[in-house]
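Can anyone check this?
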Amino acid sequence: MSASNPLHGVTLERIVTHLHAEYGWEELGRRIPVKCFQNEPSVGSSLKFLRKTPWAREQVEGEYLKQVRREDLNPLIDELKRGQALNFTGVSQTKVHAALGWMLRHLEQNAQNLKLYSLPTLAHIEDVNFWPDAEALPLLNLAIDRSALGHGDYEPGVVAELLRRGADVNDSRFWLPLLHTVDVEGQAYQSKTRAPRTDILDLLLSAGADPQAQDSRGHTALSIAGAYGLKAVVNKLQSPSLNPPKPSDR
């Protein structure tokens, strides 16, 4: 494969891992409807299927190339991938949002990357509640979602800074952040990716997240925590300080 080929030196594993980080299995399976992305997907099983199924591999490589071309049109993402200093001069708010989203999806969420890339980019975002059409999640939900990585030294700094900058802790445009947080912890616990944690839950509650709020199906953070068996989360959400007695109960 020649160096002029845009896939030169790019392994299939890197392609699948990149697309999974960008879209998640559900969206990836919608964009490329093959069984390895729709039936108990994993990177390993996808690689086995794609290596013996040329037509499916071609589709995956095509989607990867389209994604990379979109990334390269964003000067911040392009600079980041090239190891250059980020220059925010003249960059639109939509592209700054997209760059931060890319960092959350593709960079290890540790203290060094937080200091060098994520927080400086976040500092250039004028409205942390702005949700560009091209982005699948609002920034707060995306930052919460990335806490389920299960490797590295995930820092809740992006979540904390978003809340400090005025992110709506009860934003229901996607899924209530508190419910999303509990679901993320439940999935990590269920898959044995890592031990459950409550630091982001605490941040949201301290910022005014409503523990009684329900989604469109009537689920609350407490009901989700109970379904996953997250005892520490259940105990926090049942705390008397979060559930003061009603006048009729006194």
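Reply from J.R.: I decoded it. The mean pLDDT is 89.
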